[in-house]
Automatic annotation (TrEMBL):
The protein's role, per its UniProt record: Catalyzes the conversion of 3-deoxy-D-arabino-heptulosonate 7-phosphate (DAHP) to dehydroquinate (DHQ).
Source organism: Romeriopsis navalis LEGE 11480
Reactions the enzyme catalyzes: 7-phospho-2-dehydro-3-deoxy-D-arabino-heptonate = 3-dehydroquinate + phosphate
Gene responsible for this protein: aroB
Domain 3-dehydroquinate synthase C-terminal: from-to ranges: 196-342
Pathway membership: Metabolic intermediate biosynthesis; chorismate biosynthesis; chorismate from D-erythrose 4-phosphate and phosphoenolpyruvate: step 2/7
Keyword Lyase: yes
EC number(s) recorded for this UniProt protein: 4.2.3.4
GO BP, sorted A to Z: amino acid biosynthetic process; aromatic amino acid family biosynthetic process; chorismate biosynthetic process
Binding site for NAD(+): G120, V121, I122, G123, D124, T144, S145, K157, K166
Name this protein carries in UniProt: 3-dehydroquinate synthase
SUPFAM superfamilies on file: Dehydroquinate synthase-like
Pfam families noted in UniProt: DHQ_synthase, DHQS_C
Length: 379
């Protein structure tokens, strides 16, 4: 079902199924979901063993760790926790070893479960640790950032960064369940909320025109307090449905799923070239979407009018639309060659054709890219 067919009520609980042939799973969206996660884990169809390792970071665990651990323990599970430093720069093999050390100490078995309580970084690392412990154990994603709720917690992409590139080390490992509790966004910093909105705009451009128009109609999108509960629910459910449909059609990114990389090609390069310290992932995607849009206009794929609509929406979310001043523009094109989406030595770009429709091409040359980067260079 296309995401635009959803019309959820503001407070209604939603269940979206990722219809994979081998490992289908549900995305549960409801206020108060954290307190009932233990009950959800008791579902016999999940076949979860009694040992559970909750992986989080200090800030998130302080806010929500006690609620989640208590809920899981009340359901009869034995729970330990592993707390990792927050931030993209800690998304490394060294952090995976810490999770593995905790798994060994707890004697996790093949029926055991890791629970990722946090944003995209925690979700990616926990998923990868689960994929590689005993050749694969259960993982449940409990995203606490908007970006993780609408994107990274769904679809089974897991991994860590290599010093030379983002997400170069990883595995596909689908979760058993995704548990989304929108109320946790109340403690999310405004910058992280804006980062999540970049991924939502991505869905609007690459898949769901109705979602794009919902956001266009909003007066402000830069902070949660300006977003109505009805609009927030639309944002989350439409985005999750879009991701679920695409992943179900192409689990391991051999075709259609590539469209989910819209804005990520140059976005990942910007993150890497700034050492994962200057821009966060969503900000990188925002810059990447502006660049991809301008490239599409330059190549005659997209109208100037629709490109401007996209850029205005990105600016409405107070996301950056210019390259950071510290970036050496001449380093961007070579960095693209380390992107995991390169095929036969050619960089693959996702480019818009109209709002709601994109296509993938390997025909974007450095001669096209370089002037766009110059255009986006910070003054």
């Amino acid at each position: 079902m296309p995401a635009s067919n959803l019309n959820p009520a503001a407070n209604a609980a939603q269940t979206i199924t990722v219809e994979l042939p081998q490992n289908p799973y549900n995305i549960s969206i409801a206020n108060g979901n954290l307190a009932t996660i233990g009950t959800a884990m008791q579902n016999p169809q999940l076949k979860l063993g009694r040992k559970v390792l909750v992986v989080s970071n200090p800030t998130i665990f302080k806010h929500y760790g006690q609620i989640v651990v208590a809920a899981i323990e009340a359901a009869g599970f034995s729970v330990n926790s592993c707390i990792l430093p927050a931030g993209e720069r800690y998304k490394t093999p060294a952090s995976i070893q810490k999770i593995h050390d905790a798994a060994l100490e707890m004697r996790l078995e093949r029926s055991s479960t890791m629970v990722a309580l946090g944003g995209g970084v925690i979700g990616d690392m926990t998923g990868f640790a689960a994929a590689t412990w005993l050749r694969g154990i259960n993982v449940i994603q409990v995203p606490t950032s908007l970006l993780a709720m609408v994107d990274s917690s769904i679809g089974g992409k897991t991994g860590v960064n290599h010093p030379k590139g983002k997400n170069l080390i990883g595995a596909f490992h689908q979760p058993k369940l995704v548990v989304i509790d929108p109320t946790v966004l109340k403690t999310l910093p405004a910058r992280e909320f804006r980062a999540g909105m970049a991924e939502v705009i991505k869905y609007g451009v690459n898949w769901d025109k109705a979602l794009f128009e919902h956001m266009e109609a909003a007066k402000r999108l830069d902070q949660l307090r300006y977003v109505s509960e009805a609009l927030l629910n639309t944002i989350i459910t439409h985005s999750c449905q879009a991701k679920a449909v695409v992943v179900a059609k192409d689990e391991k990114e051999s075709g259609l799923r590539e469209i989910l990389n819209y804005g990520h090609t140059i976005g990942h390069a910007v993150e890497s070239l700034t050492g994962y310290r200057v821009v966060n992932h969503g900000e990188g995607v925002g810059i990447g979407m502006v660049a991809a849009g301008e490239i599409a206009v330059e190549m005659g794929w997209w109208s100037r009018e629709e490109c401007d609509r996209q850029n205005i929406l990105i600016e409405k979310c107070h996301l950056p639309t210019r390259l950071p001043a510290i970036i050496d523009i001449s380093a961007v094109v070579p960095k693209l060659q380390t992107d995991k989406k390169v095929k036969a030595g050619k960089v693959r770009f996702v480019l818009p054709k109209q709002i709601g429709t994109v296509a993938v091409t390997d025909q974007v040359t450095p001669e096209i890219i370089q002037p766009v980067l110059q255009q986006l260079a910070s003054a």
